[in-house]
Q: What sequence folds into this?
């Protein structure tokens, strides 16, 4: 184990914090093996490694922490086998635990409406309202929205052209309230902000393209103004967009296209939200929900 950690430090340049974590993980592993009367790595078998992982999970350790510990253990056995210290690698086939699927943090519709109901008619306020309306209406990432040019919005077709990850473009429909907010911004605010020629749709006070950081600040300020106590992140409106569509009956593959996900499995996490909602409705509405059928 000491040789493996030295290898990581000297040849891999592993950070000190990571080395300390691996050291703790491997000491825990050594104690587990000692409890099984195993004193040499050559005596370790795949079931023993699997048993160690099961013990970690039974102790209440989070899946992410158990997975990190297994990374250290697998690295140790791979190193020992490569150095000729053991005839085989017993940890090679042991897979880390799958972390639980976390539900996206979505806001209730009423909170979204309060978030979008921004007061004021200054150029910055009109811009901010158009920005937030477009984020929720299209489900776009903040980076996609601040990257928009004026010509990417088609008011006639009520669509917006988004540049997604990997340079993949997609056309997404935009709701009427968002188009109205965009029109107000383009007519009454953007000409004031545009101190120099730029195709960018959303501009900062200096006339340049709005940054992701400023857009995130706009969202955070709007949430505070609306009195929203839930944690609001740059993806909050995107998550809310997808969740509300699914709860409204939208097909998961349609939501996949709108979000620009390469795989439908990425989008299917939103079906968990819908199932939870259905379960709550069933529990409160069905006369035999609690007593069985």
A:
């Amino acid at each position: 184990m000491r040789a493996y950690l030295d290898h990581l430090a000297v040849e891999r340049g592993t950070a000190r914090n990571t080395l300390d974590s691996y050291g703790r993980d491997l000491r825990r592993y050594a104690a587990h093996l000692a409890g099984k009367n195993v004193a040499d790595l050559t005596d370790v078998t795949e079931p023993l490694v699997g048993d160690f992982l099961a013990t970690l999970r039974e102790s209440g350790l989070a899946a992410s922490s158990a997975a990190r510990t297994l990374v250290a253990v697998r690295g140790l056995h791979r190193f020992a086998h490569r150095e000729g210290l053991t005839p085989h690698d017993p940890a090679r086939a042991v897979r880390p635990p799958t972390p639980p699927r976390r539900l996206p943090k979505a806001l209730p519709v009423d909170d979204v409406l309060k978030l979008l109901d921004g007061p004021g008619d200054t150029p910055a306020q009109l811009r901010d309202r158009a920005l937030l309306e477009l984020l929720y209406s299209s489900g776009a990432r903040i980076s996609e929205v601040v990257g928009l040019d004026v010509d990417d919005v088609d008011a006639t077709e009520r669509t917006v052209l988004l540049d997604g990850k990997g340079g993949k473009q997609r056309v997404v429909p935009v709701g009427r309230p968002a188009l109205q907010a965009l029109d107000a911004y383009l007519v009454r605010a953007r000409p004031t902000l545009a101190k120099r020629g730029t195709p960018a749709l959303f501009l900062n006070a200096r006339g340049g393209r709005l940054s992701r950081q400023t857009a995130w600040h706009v969202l955070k300020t709007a949430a505070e103004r609306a009195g929203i106590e839930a944690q609001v992140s740059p993806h909050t409106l995107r998550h809310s967009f997808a969740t509300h569509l699914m709860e409204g009956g939208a097909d998961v593959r349609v939501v996949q296209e709108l979000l620009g996900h390469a795989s439908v499995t990425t989008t299917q996490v939103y079906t968990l939200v819908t199932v939870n909602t259905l379960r709550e409705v069933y529990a409160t509405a069905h006369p035999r929900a609690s007593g069985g059928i």
Summary: The radius of gyration is 26 Å. The first helix runs from residue 2 to 10. The longest strand covers residues 159-163. The mean pLDDT is 87.
